Amino acid sequence: MIFLSILLSFSLGVIVSGAIFSFISMIGVVPRLAQKTKTIKYIKFYEEIIIFSGVLGASSIMIPYNFHLPVIIIAFAFLCNGIFIGCLAVSLTEILDVIPIMARRIKALNAIRIFMIVIAIGKSVGTFLYFFINLK
Fold this sequence. Notes:
The chain is mainly alpha-helical. The protein has six helices and no strands. The protein has helices at residues 2-27, 29-36, 43-59, 71-95, 98-105, 112-132. Helix 4 (71-95) packs across helix 6 (112-132). 77% of the residues lie in helices and 0% in strands.
């Protein structure tokens, strides 16, 4: 029975992580970020880091990792996480053409750049509040 539970958990993890990785590759956030930052030669490294992070994150549900790192490194990791989530959200809305349609409707075509920056800042602040403020 335990073996069946482990096999089922592993299979579900593979399905979910495959769906997440295909979603990230479908919206093209990694190549777009590499192109914008002019680091296209490191794209394989970026993909490997995303896969490693996914495996580490999925396994952390079952295996309690305990890293004793300085606060500055943890803060930098959370900052990078917030930036990636913000870029992912902005890429998703860009793929769905939400921002251009909304900008045309409210007649604010020049404000698209500001709107995207505000979305990224909002996602970063939300991530910061989620990880650093205890709401219990």
